[in-house]
Amino acid sequence: MPMDMPSDDYMLLSVVNTKLRDEFISLEELAAAEGAEAEEIRERLENIGYFYDRATNSFR
Predict the structure, then answer these.
(1) Rounded distance, CA 53 to CA 5, Å?
(2) Contact at 8 Å (CB) between 3 and 34?
(3) Pick from 3, 12, 16, 46: CA 20 to 30 A from residue 23's CA?
(4) Where are the domains of the chain?
(5) What is the pLDDT of residue 32?
(6) Residue 12 and residue 48: Cα distance in Å, rounded?
(7) 12: alpha, beta or left, given left = phi > 0 and alpha = psi -120 to 50?
(8) What angle do helix axes 27-34 and 38-46 make, rounded to 10 degrees?
(9) Burial of 34 (0-12, 13-18, 19+ CB in 10 A)
(10) Given this model, what pLDDT does residue 5 score?
């Protein structure tokens, strides 16, 4: 089932970081499992000043 990405980027940040913390070991794994594009998620969150940190597996 594809991830229903929130249209609000700050809500997306919350959903993605929660899923990364609780369910997935990487952004790529989350995107593959949810039928989303990792690059689209990355771009949307970079637009609001958050960048993916592989070391912490979160957007900071």
Answers:
(1) 20
(2) yes
(3) 46
(4) 9-59
(5) 95
(6) 11
(7) alpha
(8) 120
(9) buried
(10) 83
Q: What is the pLDDT of residues 5-25, one digit of tens each?
A: 899 999 999 999 999 999 999
Rounded to two decimals, the pTM is 0.92
Contacts of residue 26, defined as CB under 8 A and 6 or more positions apart, other chains included, come to 20, 54, 57
* Average pLDDT score over residue span 31-55: 96
Question: Cβ–Cβ contacts within 10 Å for residue 27, how many?
Answer: 23
* DSSP 8-state code for residue 4: -
Give the span between the Cα atoms of 47 and 33, in whole angstroms: 24
Separation CA 45–CA 39 (nearest Å)? 10
